[in-house]
Amino acid sequence: MKSYKYYIIGALLIMMGSACKKDIFNLSPTDELSPASFWKTSSDATAGLTGCYSNLWDITNYVLPYLDVLTPNAYSNYPWEGWQGIAWGNATPDGPGGIPVIWEGAYSGIGRTNVFLANIGNVEMDATLKARMIGEAKFLRALYYFNLINYYGGVPLITTPPDLSQATQPRATVDQVRQQILKDLDDAAAVLPAAPYTGSDIGRATEGAALALKTRVLLYNGQWADAAAAAKSVMTLAGTGYALFPSYRGLFLPANENNSEVIFDVQFESTGKFSTNWDILLGIYNALYTPGWSSIEPTEDFVDTYDMKDGSTYSPTNPLADPTNKYNNRDPRMDQTIFRPGVNYEGLPYPVDSKGFAGIYTGFSFKKYTVYDNAPTPVVTENKSYINGILLRYADVLLMYAEAQNEASGPDASVYDAIRQVRQRAGITQPNLPAGLSQSEMRAKIMHERRIEFVGEGLYFSDVRRWGTANVELNRAVQLNGSYKAGIMDIRKYDPKKNNLFPIPQHEIDNSQKAITQNPGY
């Protein structure tokens, strides 16, 4: 990746790839692309907007599956991937991995959306379609900026086409950027369709996507009543068809992409630039099973948090506890999310060594976001994964509503109902929560539910930081019990004065001539 000042130049040349539909557009002339020759037709506008979507790949591909590594939910053994250092509290502004990737990918996407918004007015095309495309671009700009403030805090706020002078623009405050995000989302929601797209438009932003992202922005800022209202607007939005997919496992399989639960996702493909490597990263490092690397593995710390199938907490004396395998009879989401001792992996028993230690590093492997299952499935080779990365889904809207409404008004019937829907999805059917919970008791239940429901989807790191529990959750030892790491403690460190934000990549500070200041502690 080049530094930020090069993104300013590069964003002027709109890429013809897309995370929505990766078509190759045949433009003339083929050796020249400039605003004067390009922004003429609706096809030009479509191509320009396609380039705005393409940076979703950058902020998702080597980011989304790793974010849980920053929490006790998961472990990564390879420091060169850049995430281990963040988990250990020793990330640096020059560090590899997500620190520069999120920043650079987001600003490249922002540059492209700004170019698009500045030039779309020159295109002669259907007015309704033009308004929709402007809404899509504003949604994308809001999404890119939300990623930036979530991980870095205040950042340079740029809403005009790239210019070299922007390289020395200082940081705006988080509140200033957030207000721009909310304005873009309101503008987008007003013009985007509620109904899901079909055909070649599948994957584009909708009204529901704008409102769901608005919910997340407000929730993360503790604006409880507003967040509950935004979530409710998604839940009651006519014509969307939003509903929980009847299979939790199936929700994350290629055969069921773009289903009723998906509000917005990244449309990965199996060939070319816009595939991923998720099956390799998550697949077990054992040649008998898959060609995986075990780059990301769920921890015992996380797996132990699954309730029993009747909703009770596990203990050896629980009547449902199986003395031969403590992971039997758990919340059905466990075996739809992970591989563990006692189940099959690709038709073979999950590996356990002669000393009784399972798997590779932690004793468990992820099933979610891989094609692999208990029965044999075709293996996926390197950089050929294509399961879409889900960024917004209906279950999250329901649990965001439950959390916001509980904080705003206490655990009323609507809070119970939203959680009930998630817990009683077909194939899950966890019992209702006990009646009469206090606000704090309900808060604890929602925190648990979010950890279980969204593991591997990159939300828990943000959740514990905004809940104020990061100093406990991210600042302790995690036991590793895999055959390669038997009995080793992974020491996680978190300083709330420093590690609540990522460091700004050092080359961005240098290229800004120090106009961009570093986050505290780095």
Q: Could you explain the architecture of this structure?
A:
By secondary structure, the chain is mainly alpha-helical. The chain has a domain of 209 residues: Serine Threonine Protein Phosphatase 5, Tetratricopeptide repeat, CATH 1.25.40. The protein has 18 helices and 12 strands. It has a two-stranded antiparallel ribbon. A two-stranded antiparallel sheet has the order 2-10. The chain has a two-stranded antiparallel sheet with strand order 3-4. Helix 7 packs antiparallel against helix 8. The radius of gyration is 23 Å and the shape is globular. It starts with a helix and ends in an 11-residue tail after the last helix.
| Span between termini | 22 Å
- Biggest sheet strand line-up: 1-5
Q: Which term fits the overall shape?
A: globular
Task: Output the CATH topology of the domain at 4-201 and 501-511.
Answer: Serine Threonine Protein Phosphatase 5, Tetratricopeptide repeat
In percent, how much strand structure appears in the residues? 5-15%
Number of helices, where a helix is a run of at least 4 consecutive DSSP H or I residues: 18
Q: What would you report as the Rg, rounded to the nearest angstrom?
A: 23 Å
How would a crystallographer describe the biggest sheet? 2 strands, antiparallel
Secondary-structure element pattern, one letter each: HHHHEHHHHHHEHEEEHEEEEEHHHHHEEH
Q: Under the CATH scheme, which architecture of the domain at 4-201 and 501-511 would be assigned?
A: Alpha Horseshoe
Low-confidence stretches: 1-32
CATH class of the domain at 4-201 and 501-511, named Mainly Alpha
Structural class: mainly alpha
How many strands? 12
Percent of residues in helical segments?
Answer: 25-40%
Mean pLDDT: 92
